[in-house]
Amino acid sequence: MKICILGAVNIKHMTLISHYLDNIDSSKHDVDIIYVDKYGIDEDIEVVNKYKYSIKIDPNWSKLKKIKNYYKFKPFAEAIIKKNKYDLVIVWGTYTGHLFKNFLIRNYKERYILNIRDYFHENNKLIFNRMKKLINNSLLTTLSSEGFLKFLPDSEKYQVIYSFNEKILKNCNNKNDIRYEKPIRISFIGNNRFYDVNKKFMLSLKNDNRFLLQYFGTGSDVLKKFAVENNINNTKFIDGFPIEKTSELLNETDVLNNVYGNNEIALDTALSIRLYYAIYLNKPILTSANTFTSKKAEELGLGKDINVYDGELLGDMIEDWYFNLDLIKIEALTNKELIRISNANNDFYIKLRKVLENEAI
Questions:
Q1: Where are the alpha helices (DSSP H) in 141-291?
Q2: Is the pLDDT confidence value at 311 over 80?
C-alpha cells in the first residue's frame, strides 16, 4: 500500500506521528510525508520519503496574509498526490483538513484518516459544517482528547488516541520521588505559545530561590528575553531541541508546568502531552482550573490548579503542595490509567493494521 502523511506543519509539530509509523510495516508499505517547513530546517524521519514545501511566515503578518502563504502549499501537495496515486492519506490536523477538504472528498472519500489535535473555530457554523463533511467522508477520524466531543459534530467515525510516547518515557527515571533539595525544578516542555500567563508566573516567583523555572522548546526565547528585561534570574531556557532530548529534560524536572490559562474552548478541552509525562513518571503537574487536563490530573492526585495572579502566596502554596504529595496513592491511580490508555491506543493500532490489510474496521 502507498501511504501519504499530509500536514501543513513541520514534522516536529506532528506530535506522536509514531502512533502511525510504528504500526506501518515498511517492508510491505511505502510511506511519503508531504509537509510545510517554516523554520528552514532539515528534519530526519526514518523509513519515510519526504516532500518539503518551504514557506516564510512573519509572526507580525495579519492572519489573512499568513493563510494566503499557506495556501500556496495546496497545489504543490495535490500535484504530488495525483502523481503518486496513494491508497491512503493521513491528514495531520484540522487546518490541513480544511485546506484540502474538496480534494480529499472528491478523490479520497473513505480513504483518508483525519487526525484532530485542536479546536479550530468549530463554533462558527460554516466551519462546523465543513468539519462535519470532512469527518463523515473520512475512513476514520482520530482525536487526541475526548474533550473535543464538546465542540465536534456527532459521528461514529471517532477514535481517541492518547499522546503517549513510550519510546521517550522509557529513557526517563520511571519513578518520581520527592526531591527535598532546592530549588524545585518546574519545567514547561514543548511548543510554548502561552506567553502572557507564563510571564505572570515568572513575575510571581521572581528570584524565589526555592524554585527554578525552566522553559524548554520552540518559543521559549520570547520568555528568556522577558526574564532578562525584568531581572528574573531563577530561570533556564532552551528554545528548541530534538525530540530525543525530551527524556533528558524530564529527568531534570520535579514538577511539570501545564499552566495555559482557561475560559477558551481550545484550552479547556485539550489533553496536554505533559499530562502523559506526568502519568507515566508520577510527576506532579501544575494546571489551569476548569480545563480537561486539570480534571484528569486532579483525579489521579497529580495536579494542582494555580492562579498566576496570587503573587507572593503562590510560592508557599506550591512548596506546601509538592512536599505533601501522596506518591503511593498517585502510583496506584496512574497504574490503572496507564492500562486504560494502553487499551484505547491498542484498539486504534488494530484498526490501522486492518486498514493497511484492506480489512473492514
A1: 166-169, 195-204, 220-229, 246-251, 265-269, 273-281
A2: no
pLDDT at 176 over 70: no
Spatial distance between the Cα atoms of 36 and 143, rounded to a whole number of angstroms? 22
Question: Is the backbone peptide bond immediately before 284 cis, with ω within 30 degrees of 0?
Answer: no
Q: Which residues, 6 or more positions from 123, have their beta carbon under 8 angstroms from its beta carbon? A: 151, 265
Rounded CA-CA distance 314/203 in Å is 11
Nearest partner of 276 among 113, 123, 145, judged by Cα? 145
Instruction: List, in sequence order, every residue forming a beta bridge with 116; answer none if it has no partner.
Output: 143
DSSP string, 257-307: EE----SSHHHHH---HHHHHHHHHT--EEE-TTSHHHHHHHHTT-EEE--
Q: Estimate to the nearest angstrom the gap between the alpha carbon of 194 and the chain centroid.
A: 14
User: Which pLDDT does position 157 carry in this prediction?
Assistant: 95
Q: Measure the CA–CA gap between 290 and 326, rounded to whole angstroms.
A: 23
Predicted local distance difference test score (pLDDT) of residue 240: 82
| Residues whose CB is less than 8 angstroms from the CB of residue 47 and which lie 6 or more positions away in sequence, other chains included | 21, 26, 31
Q: What is the pLDDT of residue 322?
A: 95
- What are the structural domain ranges in the chain? 2-161, 167-336
Chain-wide mean pLDDT for the chain? Answer: 91
Report whether pLDDT(106) > 90.
Answer: yes
The b-or-e profile of 289-326 (16+ CB within 10 A means b, else e) is eebbbbbbbeebbbbbbbebeeeeebbeebeeebeebe
197-240 pLDDT, tens digit each:
999 999 999 999 999 999 999 899 999 999 999 999 999 999 98
Give the pTM: 0.83
Bridge partners, 5 (sequence order): 33, 90
> Does the pLDDT value for residue 168 go beyond 90?
no
CA atoms within 13 A on the CB side of 28: 8
Domain 167-336, what architecture?
3-Layer(aba) Sandwich (3.40)
Does residue 174 have a pLDDT over 80? Answer: no
| 2-161 and 167-336 share one fold | yes
The fourth-level CATH superfamily of domain 2-161 is Glycogen Phosphorylase B; (3.40.50.2000)
